[in-house]
Amino acid sequence: MIKKKILSLDEPLEFIFSHSALGVGWDNPNVFTICTLNETTSVNKKRQEIGRGLRICINQGGQRVYDNLDTPEGQETNILTVVPNQSYENFVNDYQKQVEQETGIAINKKMVRDGQKKPTTVKLNTQIFNSDQFKELWKRIYQKTQYNVELDEQELIQSAIKEFDNIITTKPKLSVTIKRIGSLAKEELLRGQYLGETTEEAKIDYPPINLIQEIVTKTSLSHVTASKILTGMSEQAKDYLIQNPLEFVSQAIDRIQHCLNNQIVDSIEYNLTDEKISEDIFEKEFVTYKENLELTKSVYNLLVHDSDIEKNFAQELQRSDKVQVFAKLPKKYTIDTPIGVHNPDFAFVVENRNLKNDKKNFILWWRPKAVMTSMI
Fold first, then answer.
1. Cβ(32)–Cβ(53) under 8 Å?
2. How far is CA 175 from the centre of its chain?
């Protein structure tokens, strides 16, 4: 009876807090907010908790409630809000990056929008989309690819061991600030009389860490390779590991990934496949609440930009007399890479005119950090 009452829409209580419901396998899909108070070191437990929140919610009849593709941003039903402590925040950030790499779909961390702002309809610029210039551009980039990478295991092990000598960890410290307050009123809490602070080195008993498994999970190396790297590191590196294991393993993973990326860049080869990306990924129109920019050379009449960098880059493309057409590519346009699936930001055609011939460059561009004035 109590459960039925709580689940009723007439009951003002909107959620049930349970310290264990997120981690013991309950099939409870209606989790919209996770607020972490405890320090959890288990990655699997955190994945379980996040997984409960990522389940599609159900209605009173037990049916799943899905958001329509045209649901305005910020008005979706299935939104998970995580209010994390520091260790949980680091996990969620890494988890979001992993999801982005594997799906090619960027996770927008700024879902809050102006409630007074009206929706804008973005439409396909059929004149540009059907032009010979865009058709030629699309033919250059619509074919799917496969990549091959050759890694030298011994070189990777030696370079990682060498990188470990550059790792420096800090001794754990405990900082205490003391204030005197007269009441629990908000103003008094903020204004409290400062009495002083102290910082002391703290002796911490770290939970056991499976270093090999941590490296294997985050880098996809084999257990044998990870073991050879750890057993080959210097005494200096081992001292820093003992001093702060959590900080050390975090830096170690970053440095191993850096060594991997260097080898990948030097050896990667792309080969064309028979599969092609359909033009249907370009919707005829869609609704947005984001900032947008009116353009004439783009495949859409408006460019929805995620940052001032993208906005400035698009404006430079629009102004350049060398650029014929361009497109901010849909999220469904993805390219497989060794570090995950990625979505290029722009595709455009640059025409280099000279006395002898007209040469065209067909370019895919990732996350522009600066305007390519030398090229466009």
1. yes
2. 32
